[in-house]
Design a protein that fits this description.
Layout (H helix, E strand, L loop, with lengths): L7 H7 L3 H12 L14 E3 L5 E3 L5 E2 L14 H13 L6 H8 L4 H13 L12 E9 L18 E10 L2 E9 L5 H11 L5 E5 L13 E5 L9 H17 L9 H13 L7 H11 L7 H16 L3
Parallel strand pairs: 4-7, 7-8
Antiparallel strand pairs: 1-2, 2-3, 4-5, 5-6
Helix pairs in contact: 3-9, 4-5
Length: about 325
């Protein structure tokens, strides 16, 4: 049963204490009762230090251990308020905004929090798209964001992003997005297989990278017209909203290495845009936050630093 506050007043009343926040996480992490992460035992007893001791193997575990909250010295009350604020902001949240609203000690802290939460915005094993699905690419970055068609090899600032959008009558259903290294058949067909249910109708243009979808279990509608203007209205609408969001909320300051997590956030918000209660987004985020492995700051920035060193030494 989904359990979440419907409005801000209810949220503030319900999560006024650390104990209330902790109980909620316990409920989300072990909805069917405690399960020891080491031996699978179900009997336990609590300690005064808010640990759960397994009766079978004596392993002590905190409800925060193994989640995005692990090793955080900030109170859960603050985390909960941040999650509520982030999911309530229709246009998303920036690290600078988070730092200002919650008086976090540094921009780095706010940046880390947002990236931890973005990693919790994708549910492992989520359902694939189905029915009729448009699939096309767009390009993020570069000086000419209005450019249509596939860019030249020389334009290294542009990053290809594949967008898949369900047709829902004349509207848009659920979406999936992913950055790709290239537009080869291996990359494009692999993404379609990951995000679209076999047997679905997949509508693409005539690019050779999609030509093998019919052999992968899909009903492939391949449009050979030279111009795709008007052929993929759902994908192009999503692409336009994505670029506007990246430039508006984040001023375009999104590194290629972290782009996937911004795409996850956009997808999380878009697919829940019709939710009647904003509290449901908070619930989904909190629910997934206790099922995502902790990611230290050093791991988050490792790829970026490695790329910076390579550029510096012309590698």
């Amino acid at each position: 049963m989904e359990d979440y506050p419907r409005a801000l007043e209810e949220f503030e009343e319900r999560f006024a204490t650390e104990e209330a926040c902790r109980r909620y996480l316990v409920q989300l992490r072990w909805p069917d009762g405690f399960v020891c992460p080491r031996c699978g035992g179900t009997r336990h007893w609590p300690t005064k230090r808010d640990l759960h001791v397994c009766a079978k193997c004596s392993y002590q575990v905190s409800v925060k251990a193994g989640t995005i909250f692990q090793d955080s010295h900030k109170p859960l009350k603050l985390w909960f308020r941040a999650m509520w604020w982030i999911t309530s902001e229709k246009t998303g949240a920036s690290a600078l905004g988070l730092q200002r609203v919650f008086a976090l000690g540094s921009y780095q802290t706010a940046w880390v929090w947002l990236h931890k939460l973005r990693r919790a915005m994708v549910r492992p094993g989520r359902d694939r798209l189905s029915g009729r699905v448009e699939v096309d690419e767009t390009y993020v970055g570069g000086l000419d964001e209005g450019h249509r068609g596939r860019p030249s090899r020389e334009d290294a600032n542009k990053v290809p992003v594949v967008i898949a959008a369900e047709e829902d009558g004349n509207g848009i259903g659920r979406i999936r997005m992913r950055r790709v290294a290239d537009l080869s058949a291996e990359s494009l067909e692999g993404i379609v297989q990951d995000v679209v249910e076999p047997g679905s109708v997949v509508h693409t243009d005539g690019w050779q990278g999609y030509v093998g979808l019919g052999k992968k279990g899909y009903r492939h509608q391949r449009d050979l017209q030279k111009s795709d203007r008007g052929l993929f209205p759902r994908v192009h609408r999503v692409a336009s909203l994505l670029k506007r969001w990246l430039m508006g909320t984040h001023q375009g300051a999104v590194s290629h290495e972290h782009l996937d997590y911004y795409l996850d956030e956009f997808t999380f918000r878009f697919n829940r845009r019709t939710s009647k209660f904003r509290g449901k987004l908070f619930y989904r985020l909190a629910q997934q936050a206790v099922n995502v492995d902790p990611v230290p700051y050093q791991t988050m920035v490792k790829q970026v630093r490695a790329k910076t060193r390579m550029k510096k030494h012309n590698i």
